[in-house]
Amino acid sequence: MSGGIVIAVDGPVAAGKGTLARRLALHLGFHYLDSGLLYRATASRLLADGGRADDEGAAEAVARALSREDLARSDLRSEAVGQAASRVAAMAGVRAALLAFQQRFAATLPGVVIDGRDIGTVVCPDARVKLFVTASPAERARRRQQELLGRGESADYAAILADLEERDLRDTTRPVAPLRPAEDAVTLDTTALDADGALQTALQIVESRLKAVPDTAI
Ligand code: DC
Predict the structure, then answer these.
(1) How many CB atoms lie within 10 A of CB 213?
(2) Rounded to two decimals, what is the model's pTM?
(3) Whose CA is nearest to atom 2 of ligand 1?
């Protein structure tokens, strides 16, 4: 096997995995990929091209032709695109189209941190470290509300919680690559942790896993 150290960070929406994964990568000098952006970019371009979020053929064609510019589209973080992303992410053709890109990225030296839903289970089953980051639905909805308010967007707590639970249900019950912790993942519950606390806990887990799991990759 060639390539560097892979740290997979999976978990449900708004559990704090994006912030944690980015900071982990910065701290370790690793490259960072937010795999959710690939699904969001696919959904965004599909909708912009006039397609429907349930049109699998069109969604797969968009995923196969995804460009660097698509990853910088301005509406990637909108609720509409998030919902559509959750739909296209349930399509086997879309997931297959985006798999090769993620696996190529995973081989980047000296190492990578990738966050998503199926990184430890499907994309990088041999990752040296697998974190499953979670938090209570109420806390995740509260964080999402703060994030939206911070961007000057409207943010109704009950609607956010309902949307989050709907997305969790779709992500965990889809037949292809459902969201679940890998058997060898370490669960990190961030409900009572701030960003610094989550980073410190994650670094301790990474350190102990790197010691425990033999280095056959490099
Ligand atoms: O993490 P996010 O909210 O940006 O992800 C957007 C959608 O993409 C979400 O509904 C789950 C899906 N996704 C996925 O199925 N697999 C991944 N590795 C990353 C995201």
Answers:
(1) 16
(2) 0.90
(3) 36
Residue 120 in any domain: the answer is: yes
Q: DSSP per residue over 144-209, as a string?
A: HHHHHHHTT----HHHHHHHHHHHHHHHHH-SSS-S---TTPEEEE-TT--HHHHHHHHHHHHHHH
Residue 44 Cβ < 6 Å to ligand 1: no
* 134 CB near ligand 1 (under 6 Å): no
Protein residue closest via CA to atom 9 of ligand 1: 86
Q: Is 167 in the pocket of ligand 1 (CB under 6 A)?
A: yes
> What pLDDT score does 58 carry?
97
| pLDDT tens, position by position, 170-211 | 889 988 888 999 999 999 999 999 999 999 999 999 999 998
**Ligand 1 lined by 85 (C-beta under 6 Å):** yes
pLDDT tens-digit readout, 206-217: 999 998 876 654
- Position 218 in a domain: no
With respect to residue 25, please indicate whether it lies within any of the assigned structural domains.
yes
